[in-house]
Amino acid sequence: MSIIEKAAGKLEKEGTPSVKQAPAVPSNSGNELGSGTDNSANETLQGFSPTFAAPPGPKRITLNLAKMRQYGIVTPDEGRTQVAEQFRVIKRPLLTNAFNKGAGMIKNGNLIMVTSALAGEGKSFCTVNLAMSIAMEMDRTVLLVDADVARPTLPKILGLGTERGLLDLLLDEKLDMADVLIKTDIEKLTLLTAGKRHSHSTELLASQSMASLLRELAQRYADRVVIFDSPPILLTSEARVLASQMGQIVLVVEAETTSQQTVKETLRQIESCDVVNLIYNKARSFSGGEYYGYYYHEPA
């Protein structure tokens, strides 16, 4: 049974109301109450009140939208901003690829990994903004996964604590998906943190358990986009393992800093994925005052 199927079964089972059973009332037909029949059962019934067990489910948090805006993150209550408009442009081809049917269908197209060649290019900034922008779609939901298991950045941006997450799920067969998912007050956005650090994180991400998890995530929910904040490609082996299992990759390139040779080497490392999109980040304005790319406030 898959991880997600176990979680669904657990929720279904534990979500059923549990009613306290009262003692059976013996029939008085043809008998007198004094002939060994205890009328305390009738008293028990009169004071009986059913109790219902609260169904378990994912943890729920309220995001600090004001703090997120300080990081330059798009929020639902912010209105039309330059960054919001830029990510509206970015997400559209990704969504088209994710849910396109027919001859042009991309396998696992709704699994999208955001990465960079090196640290500090703004990949986590772009990851969160992309997830927030897609969460504002009318008919899509988003699962944002922190797969930067060596240097998680999403907890800082989103104000999360030390939570069980992806690596814990892969390590513990008894742990269900419902135990590690975090629901947010943004209705269509759910989070999965990196979890506890592990010395064999690369092997865990390359395991059959991870492959099964990704397959379930890609196929179980028809409207869901799963976005992974990945480690930098040239600094860790985890990113290359993840890249081989993604439907789409978004490569963040820092303007005027990342060399062409670095970009070419990065693209070579992720050539197993057929669909790679580039974001030119921290770009200055071109002639005519138009901007291409994004500015972000904190290294990620």
Mind sketching the topology for me?
Blueprint: H1 3-14, H2 40-46, E1 59-61, H3 65-70, H4 82-99, E2 111-116, H5 123-135, E3 141-146, H6 154-158, H7 166-171, H8 177-180, E4 182-184, E5 189-192, H9 201-205, H10 208-220, E6 224-229, H11 238-243, E7 248-254, H12 260-269, E8 276-281
Parallel strand pairs: 1-4, 2-6, 2-7, 3-5, 3-6, 7-8
Antiparallel strand pairs: 4-5
Helix pairs in contact: 4-5
Verbal overview:
The protein has helices spanning 3-14, 40-46, 65-70, 82-99, 123-135, 154-158, 166-171, 177-180, 201-205, 208-220, 238-243, 260-269; strands at residues 59-61, 111-116, 141-146, 182-184, 189-192, 224-229, 248-254, 276-281. It is α/β, with parallel strands linked by helices. The longest helix has 18 residues, at 82-99. 35% of the residues lie in helices and 14% in strands. The chain folds into two domains: 9-46, no CATH class; 59-281, P-loop containing nucleotide triphosphate hydrolases (Rossmann fold, 3-Layer(aba) Sandwich). Residues 11-55 and 286-300 have low confidence and may be disordered. The protein starts with a helix and ends in a 19-residue tail after the last strand. The chain is built from twelve helices and eight strands. An eight-stranded mixed beta sheet has the order 1-4-5-3-6-2-7-8, with helices on both faces. Helix 4 (82-99) packs across helix 5 (123-135). The protein is globular and about 50 Å long.
How is this structure best summarized?
It contains twelve helices and eight strands.
